[in-house]
Amino acid sequence: METTPGIRHISVVGAGYMGHGIALGFALAGYPVRLHDRTDEILAKALAASGEDLATLVDAGAIEPNRVTPTLARIHPTTLLGEAVADADLVVEAVPEELPLKQALFAELDALCPPGAILASNTSTFPPSELAVVTRRPERVLVAHYFHPPHLLPLVELVPSPATSAETLEAVRQLLTGIGKQPVIVQREVAGFVANRLQAALFREALAIVAEGIATAEDVDAVVTSGFGRRLAVLGPFAAMDLAGLDVVLRVMERLVPEIAASPEVPPLLRETVAAGRTGVKSGAGFRDWPPAASRDVRERLARALVAIAGWSRAQPDGTDRHREPD
């Protein structure tokens, strides 16, 4: 097997909310990125969104204003997939969460990309083996699962399939670590990986609490954001349990575990809300109303809070000294 080459040429396929943010993260770190999507309109919206994201970083004191133009200039949009990946060392796929769509794309990428290119999927649900199977390079296929907003949150779950080579996994881990991400390696394929399994358990109980009339959606959010959510952001669940005392945790679990939601079915409240067309911020309403001003405000508040938590400062280097522009 060929040795995995150093990663210098990066392509992102899919310019939606996740895709444009992934591309922006690499561009902020000094990497030129080719960004692909089906239409010029989608790409124009992605670049506009990237500009807004950068403006928020400037306003939050995270980057200097003079970094905006060169960062945007590192993102090269194209509607031609072959052009986007012709010399790619790494391709990150960020298209909608539909397995047939992703499999068709991976088969096409396998045909278009150089033999040594690594193919990574931002899927949040599908195991990498289901994508690797349609390629002739299963040893170079893995999941790189980002979290939104991907240019701000450091976590990336790296999920290898049984066929993924150690060299591939290490090359992507080193790349992400080098741009300030915190890659976590998921040891085996499992639905939802780690973060979404934890998040789904919390969401299921939150939906049950509202459905049973125990508290409103707004108050459940307040309980998390002003209570244990702050502690978990610092400690994580296992350190939090150790700090509380495992004997105390055991007694609490003995009392609560039989009471909390455990149905294998999707909570009816969620299905009913979606069926009513209330899909969240993107539709203007979910469990609460989201007029345009409120939508902008919540995104900006989230960005500012994440910047503060990460300790970003205007002195942060833009990566141009660490990552040479490709020839």
From TrEMBL:
This is 3-hydroxybutyryl-CoA dehydrogenase. InterPro entries: 3-OHacyl-CoA_DH, 3-OHacyl-CoA_DH_CS, 3-OHacyl-CoA_DH_NAD-bd, 3HC_DH_C, 6-PGluconate_DH-like_C_sf, 6PGD_dom2, NAD(P)-bd_dom_sf. Keywords: Oxidoreductase. It holds the Pfam family 3HCDH_N. It comes from uncultured Thermomicrobiales bacterium. The record marks H145 as: Important for catalytic activity. GO terms for biological process: fatty acid beta-oxidation. Residues 10-188 form the 3-hydroxyacyl-CoA dehydrogenase NAD binding domain. Belongs to the 3-hydroxyacyl-CoA dehydrogenase family. The lineage of its organism: Bacteria, Pseudomonadati, Thermomicrobiota, Thermomicrobia, Thermomicrobiales. One of its GO terms (molecular function) is 3-hydroxybutyryl-CoA dehydrogenase activity. It comes from the Bacteria. Residues 192-290 form the 3-hydroxyacyl-CoA dehydrogenase C-terminal domain. Its EC number is 1.1.1.157.
